[in-house]
Amino acid sequence: MSTIHVHDKYFIPYLSGEEIINKVKELGASINRDYNGKRPLFISILNGSFIFSADLFKFLTIEAEICFIKLASYKGTKSSGQVVTAIGLDTDIKGRDIIILEDIIDTGKTLSQFLPQVYNQQPSSLKIAVLLHKPDATVFPVNIDYTCFSIPNKFVLGYGLDYNGLGRNLSQLYQLKED
Ligand code: IMP
Ligand code: MG
Description:
The chain has about 180 residues and is α/β, with parallel strands linked by helices. It has three helices and ten strands. The chain has helices at about 15-35, 50-60, 110-120; strands at about 5, 10-15, 40-45, 65-75, 80-85, 95-105, 125-135, 145-150, 155, 175. A six-stranded mixed β-sheet has the order 5-4-3-6-7-8, sandwiched between helices. A four-stranded antiparallel β-sheet has the order 1-2-10-9. Helix 3 links the parallel strand 6 and strand 7 (about 125-135). It starts with a strand and ends with a strand. The model has no long low-confidence stretch (mean pLDDT about 95). Bound molecules: inosinic acid and magnesium ion. Inosinic acid binds near residues 79, 104, 109 and 156.
């Protein structure tokens, strides 16, 4: 496994596909336990969460539903600071047990802007499950219920996460190589 080149940057291997899938499987088992007898509705945040959400969903043995919304705040390897809702929530979530699926929490801005929209619609419960969390990047603190990996404040790529549109198809995670 070696360095890869995407657009103008180099990335080094960080987490293997096997390490990731094992954690996602553990997360699935925790959710199966915690939501036994319930029927949660997952809200997956596009684009970055599509692979994480699909893999996690296959490990669920409880009844579960999923819908997708699209929020974006990133340009290149830096957050633009502006969160745009490109595809909104079209499902009635009142009285539902909601689990939000996010690929990565970086500054926390994306989720902290979206959460009030969810609370306004009065779900009966709300939890957040993330693949990756960069605790050192926090600007807007968000309570995360399930975290697969806490990672350093470095840009990562692969397993659904992109750098200017590329790299989402990589089955492992890479980290930006500092020059
Ligand atoms: P936040 O609003 O700063 O928490 O950023 C959240 C969004 O930025 C995530 O959903 C990702 O789409 C994107 N993002 C944050 N960090 C990275 C990274 O290291 N690689 C790729 N995308 C990232
Ligand atoms: Mg995202």
